[in-house]
Amino acid sequence: MKQIAILLLSVFLVFSQQACKNRQQTNTQTADTTATTASQSDIDVTITDRLAELGLTADSDWRGIKLGDDFDKVKGVEKGEPFESDDDHVGYTIEFKNLESADMLYYQTAKKVSAIDVDLFLNSQESVNAYQNELKSYFTAHYGTPKANQWTSPGGITVTMKDVSKGKDFGLKVRMALANGSATASAK
Questions:
Q1: Which of these, 73, 71, 95, lies nearest to 83 by C-alpha position?
Q2: In what order do the strands lie in the sheet with 170-178?
């Protein structure tokens, strides 16, 4: 009788140990899957042809520049044609094949990029809608779900996008700013 009890106890302990081991493996696999999913969602920025033509990348805020970068980096990274420069900001323009264009103004506070204003000059309402939809996806992937065409990241970046079309002039206005640099840049 003692032998049967010891045998049953041994079997029970083996099964218990195996169950604990399986549970630890499942928890580890779940943690690995969660980490993989989190890092994949960080990279889930789809760069369409239109966004690539704008020069947008999956790992920057705008055209290879991140808000908070050293302001001197703008001149090294920006491939557009410079059209304006002073102590507080620098402006560049790019032209697209279809006679559309974009102007970008990069503002600085304490020698860091604190805000970026973008004016897209477009040919039609269809083009405005296409850019607006693709930029919405881009900004949502970067900064989360918007509220009324405004994105706010946990890191303090606020992005707004507005259709500024009037009559036969079509366009979009995009503003990106750091919370601590937006007052200086928006005064311009």
A1: 95
A2: 81-85, 89-95, 101-109, 112-122, 170-178, 157-163, 150-152
Largest CA distance in the chain: 96
| The token pair that represents 173 in the structure block | 């206005």
Provide the pLDDT for residue 2. Answer: 62
For residues 40 and 33, give the distance between their C-alpha atoms in angstroms, rounded to a whole number.
10
Q: What angle do CA 65, 43, 171 make, to 5 degrees?
A: 50
Where does the pLDDT of residue 155 fall: very low under 50, low under 70, confident under 90, or very high at 90 and above?
A: confident
Minimal CA–CA distance to 147: which of 160, 156, 137? 160
- The stretches of the chain forming alpha helices (DSSP H) are 2-42, 49-54, 72-77, 125-143, 182-186
Which pLDDT value is given to residue 94?
95
